[in-house]
Amino acid sequence: MLYVAGVDVGSTQAKAVILNEQAHVVADAILDVEMNMATAAQQVFDRVVETAQLTPEDIAFTVATGYGRYRVTFGDIQVTEISCHARGATGEFPRTRTVLDIGGQDTKAIRIGDSGEVVDFAMNDKCAAGTGRFLGAASFALDLPLSELGPLALKATAPVKITTTCTVFAESEIIGHLAKGHRPEDVLAGMHYSIATRCASLVRRVGLTPEITFTGGVSRNAAMVALLEQVLAAPLNVSSRGHFMGAIGAALYALDHARSGQRRATAQEVAS
Amino acid sequence: MTTNILVAGIDIGSTYTKTVLLDATRTVRATAIRRSGYKPAAAAIAVFDDLVANAGIAKDDVTYISTTGYGRYMVPFRHAQITELTCHAVATSHHFPSVRTILDIGGQDIKAIRIDEQGRVRAFRLNDKCAAGTGAFLEKTARYLGLETGDIGAYALRSQAPVEISSVCAVFAESEVINHLASGIAPEDIMEGAIVALSGRATQLMKRVGLEADFALAGGMTHNAAMVAALQSKLGAQLHLPPNGLGQLNGAFGAALLGLRRVERLLAEGRVIAAPGDASAIKARRWSTYVPQAVAAMSA
Predict the structure, then answer these.
(1) Which CATH number is associated with domain B98-240?
(2) Using the beta-carbon criterion (under 8 Å), do B171 and A128 form an inter-chain contact?
(3) Best mutation site among A12, A13, A126, A166 for testing chain B: the one with the most B CBs within 10 Å?
(4) What is the CATH architecture of B6-85+250-299?
(5) CA separation, residue A152 to residues A187, B133, B229 (Å)
(6) pLDDT tens digit sequence for B247-267
């Protein structure tokens, strides 16, 4: 049996998946990147191998992607996360022509051609506004876990407009709104709306061609999905494994290499 | 004469509320500083209480109150409100007539101001949209390193080899700081790196108003020796710093100076019915009248 792995080392979380020969996900693993990306990559790989009840020797090919992909010491090759998200998204939703990936520290809009190739992309990795970190600020200010933000925002009845762009200033703004007596759900709805409009303008820069697939950790947030669909006036494909899309794309590239008969590079070759 | 005139300037900033009390000879009689918090009007009232207590006077002894800063309209007991650009210009020109370019680094904004020989504002550039390049950038970096804001300067001065902080965004700089710490870089080298990054962004803003000498620095950063050194090295010139610890109080000092000018003009124009030396008639809005309104405004 042939197995391949994709490891996506993001700024906030490291994700890994193992695919079998039929490109089915046999295991996935995720963990927070604390201090060291190289360690996080190794740990998430060990964990996914263990979950799949395999050993590292069973993995025919490993592709690393994400912000920390060059810190992955055991991978065979590195592929950019733009290519991996495009590959992962078209793998599950073949008619995808636009990908929106909202991660912990960056947001990408990718346009995909008819044969699945990346035609254009726009990226925000210079400013935390419109990235997952904006929600991180809300989580900090409201003292709520990230997973509870979306469900709470959906209960809003009188959303508050968030006027600051900067994430640092937004944190103060949230506390100010709460001090004035606004309810957390209404403030949260405003935060989500702010991210949605910022991401929508990024998507428009590459062209809003259907179908649109939403990937990245923030795609698990139901309020974000609902608001983006409203702002973009278009339905979004969202995978139950949306936050693994980069890792799945990386594993699909690994499968190409494994199928074309390339052997796994030895440790010596990787080092040289 | 006008010797019993006392003018207060209150600068309600995003992070701190500062106040200065001046007498008719332009001598500082008292100062007070508090964190602004989320109710600027309450902070202004509290800091004014501190000011009169520090001066050992009654509230009604204060002839005139001018406000500045982003919260200047939120103080109901003010006589006048003045933009902080004008206040910094007037205060700096009072201390150093030769200054043409002022840099004010605040908690949530940064300003570069070009002034003329009369201390009038000729041009300015402002960043209040993004925490990069403001005091918040240093405060956040200090927080990750477990430092108090007041200790930043002394700590950074110990640095032997400042590390480069390449993130523009204050939020993303956090990850960079964590990565540097993980790779064993000394905290003082990271703190100094953040100061160097901030000084670079600040001098860029100064260039956009012309970078005409002499230069002055205003705001809380004047008390940060590492920041002053980094800016001077980037500019290749000395920075004038407000004397007697007035750096953070520069805006409030300017507001008080402008308030005093107005009081003098009102008196000179004879618009006051009172005899010389009696300033009571120009108290168009007495503190005692306005406190109930201030309280009502806060609870509204």
Answers:
(1) 3.30.420.40
(2) yes
(3) A166
(4) 2-Layer Sandwich (3.30)
(5) 10, 34, 48
(6) 999 999 999 999 999 888 887
